[in-house]
Amino acid sequence: TILAAATNDAAAFAFVPSRVVSNKDTALYGTKVGIFFGTSTGSTQEAADLIAEEFGDDVASSPIEIDEIQGSVAAEFSKYDALVVGTPTWNTGADVERSGTGWDEIYYGEMADLNIAGKKVAVFGLGDSVSYSENYADASGELYDVFESLGCSMLGATSTDGYLHEASKAIRGDKFCGLLLDEVNQEELTGERVKNWVAALIGEGLLSGAGTAAPAVSVQSPAPVPQNIETEVSVVEPVAVTQAEEQEEGFLGHYNSLTDKTWWVGNNGRSSFVTNGPPEMHSTLTKTNTRISP
C-alpha cells in the first residue's frame, strides 16, 4: 500500500481566528452546519477545527469524527441543515475506499441507505501535492462522489491554481470538488484558504434556508511562496528530533516506490518528514518504527 496524508504538526496551522458569521446572521439564516471528518494522524481533525472556528460556534458544530457515529449516521446527519465533510488520502491511487479512515467503512454500506437528497454538502481534504503529485487528495473526490450520488447539493468547488500537483481524482471539470489543503508543502497557505472557502460557502448559500441562495463568491487561491525546486519532487527536511525523543516516539515509514521516497510519521502524530530511498537506508529510524508499508 502506498500512503499519502498531511503532517500532523499542529504548529503548521498558523492562523488568526476570524468569525465570519455574526449572531445577527445566525438569526437570519436559522441553520446549523454539521462538520464531520475522518482521520488517521489527526491532521484532518485540525483542519476541521479551523473550519469550525471560521464559521463560529453559533453556526457550526464541534467537529465530529466519523468513527464515533457509525451505526447512527442517518440520525447524526439529520440534525443539521448542511454538512461539511473532510478526509485525508491514504490509499493513494485506489479506485475506492481511498481515505484509510472510518469513511471507507460506511461509504457503500450504511451511507447507501441514507435519504438526504437536497441536503447541502461541502467537502474538504488533505494530501501531499509533491510526493504524491499524481494522486493529490484523491480521497476527497470519492467523498464528493458518494454524497453527490445521494442527491445532495454539492457546494464549495475551488480553483486548482497555486497548487503543486500534477493530477488528482478530486478534480471535477476544471476545479477541485472542495477545499484541498497541503500541510506538508504549503502549510503557510492553510489559514487564508480556509477563510476564503468559508466565505465562499456562505456566498453560495450554505447557510440559507429553502429560499434563493446568495450570489456565489469566487475563491482565489492565495499565491504560493516562491520555492526553489531543483528536482521534480521536493523533499521536506527532517524535523530535528533528539535521540531520546526519537526512541520515545518512534517513526513509521511509508515508502513510495514510484518516487523512491519514504514519508516518516511519528507514532504520536507530532512530527513527520520525507527522506530519499527506502526505509532500510535509514537504520536509526527503522529501529524504532513499527510497520513499513511495501
Provide a descriptive summary of the structure in words.
- The chain is of the alpha/beta class.
- The chain contains eight helices and twelve strands.
- Strands 1, 2, 3, 4, 5 and 9 form a six-stranded parallel beta sheet that branches. A three-stranded antiparallel beta sheet has the order 6-8-7, with no helix packed on it. Strands 10-11-12 form a three-stranded antiparallel beta sheet, with no helix packed on it.
- A hairpin with a 2-residue loop joins strand 7 and strand 8.
- Helix 2 crosses helix 6 (190-204).
- The protein is globular and about 55 Å long.
- Residues 1-30, 210-219, 225-248 and 286-294 have low confidence and may be disordered.
Secondary structure class reads: alpha/beta
How many β-strand stretches?
Answer: 12
Radius of gyration: 19 Å
How much β-strand is present in the residues?
15-25%
Mean pLDDT: 75
Judging from the principal axes of the Cα atoms, what is the shape? Answer: globular
Helix-strand pattern: HEHEHEHEHEEEEEHHEEEH
